[in-house]
């Protein structure tokens, strides 16, 4: 089994994004309620954050709650929000100890007031950290993000702040929730599902995709290392030929 030491520090993905999936099925396998899976998922989040920080990954973005997840049973949504508040409270010291800056993307205003308050507090209390940027995608949907950006840009056009000819990719980037993040280099999805589920559609244009069968609560150091080693063995051509790269 590979460990963090096996990773080539000179070929690290700058931005790793993770679709943390499979909590419900993990619990079901054990004859427990879905909520039990979410509780155990928190530990996998803690370990992954810590391991990415150790590796000196610059940016880690975690898909924690999608715009579509609001359609789940009320009790599950409430539990997820409570877990969020409790984890933020509990992890503040660890984030600071590891020099990690917290951020959030998504329709944050739609979160319960308690979650918004806790989030704002941890974001502010970690804002001076200079190590890894950890971004939580909460009430996040890529289509909603793009819609919001189009609205904002349209308003600027209407008010003569920007002209249509000047709308380029950089302008679009600055209007996305992720304006402070580089493009995703490596996208990992656990649980065996091979889909994107409305996550960072614009930002993964040239990301390397990595799908793994384990359920999120079981995702540990060696799975993360396997994903990064796999990434490091790929040739990223960005439209060019292999010969052009060598
Ligand atoms: C991921 O696990 C956590 C969230 C989406 C909040 P799921 O809850 O989707 O677990 P499965 O996919 O049903 O097993
Ligand atoms: C994607 O997982 C969202 C998160 C991991 C937060 P889902 O479990 O909601 O995705 P689908 O519905 O199976 O595509
Ligand atoms: Mg799921």
Automatic annotation (TrEMBL):
Give the cofactor binding note.
Answer: Binds 2 magnesium ions per subunit.
- E.C. number(s) listed in UniProt: 2.5.1.-
Q: Which residues bind substrate?
A: 22-26, 34, 38, 66-68, 70, 72, 189, 195-197
Chain residues that bind Mg(2+): 21, 208
Q: Which CDD domains match?
A: Cis_IPPS
GO terms assigned for molecular function:
ditrans,polycis-polyprenyl diphosphate synthase [(2E,6E)-farnesyl diphosphate specific] activity; magnesium ion binding
**Which InterPro entries does this one have?**
UPP_synth-like, UPP_synth-like_CS, UPP_synth-like_sf
The protein's enzyme class = transferase
Query: Which Pfam families does the entry link to?
Result: Prenyltransf (PF01255)
Q: Which SUPFAM superfamilies match?
A: Undecaprenyl diphosphate synthase
Active site residues according to the UniProt entry? 21, 69
**Gene3D superfamilies per the UniProt record, alphabetical:** Decaprenyl diphosphate synthase-like
Q: State the similarity comment.
A: Belongs to the UPP synthase family.
- Recorded protein name is Isoprenyl transferase
């Amino acid at each position: 089994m590979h460990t963090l030491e096996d990773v080539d520090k000179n070929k690290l993905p700058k931005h790793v994004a993770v679709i943390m999936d499979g909590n419900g099925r993990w619990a079901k396998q054990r004859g427990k309620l879905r909520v039990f899976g979410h509780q155990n998922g928190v530990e996998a989040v803690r370990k992954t954050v810590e391991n990415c920080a150790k590796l000196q990954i610059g940016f880690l973005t975690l898909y924690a709650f999608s715009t579509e997840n609001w359609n789940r049973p009320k009790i599950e949504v409430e539990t997820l929000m409570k877990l969020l508040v409790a984890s933020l409270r509990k992890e503040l010291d660890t984030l600071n100890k590891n020099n990690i800056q917290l951020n959030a993307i998504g329709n944050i205003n739609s979160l319960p007031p308690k979650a918004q308050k806790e989030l704002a507090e941890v974001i502010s209390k970690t804002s001076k950290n200079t190590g890894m940027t950890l971004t939580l995608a909460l009430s996040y949907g890529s289509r909603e993000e793009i819609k919001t950006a189009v609205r904002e840009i349209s308003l600027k056009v209407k008010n003569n702040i920007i002209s249509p000819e000047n709308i380029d990719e950089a302008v679009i980037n600055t209007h996305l929730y992720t304006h402070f993040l580089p493009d995703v280099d490596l996208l990992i999805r656990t649980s065996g599902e091979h889909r994107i589920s409305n996550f960072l559609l614009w930002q993964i244009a040239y990301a390397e995709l990595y799908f793994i069968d384990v359920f999120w609560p079981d995702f540990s150091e060696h799975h993360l290392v396997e994903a990064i080693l796999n990434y490091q063995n790929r040739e990223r051509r960005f439209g060019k030929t292999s010969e052009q790269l060598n």
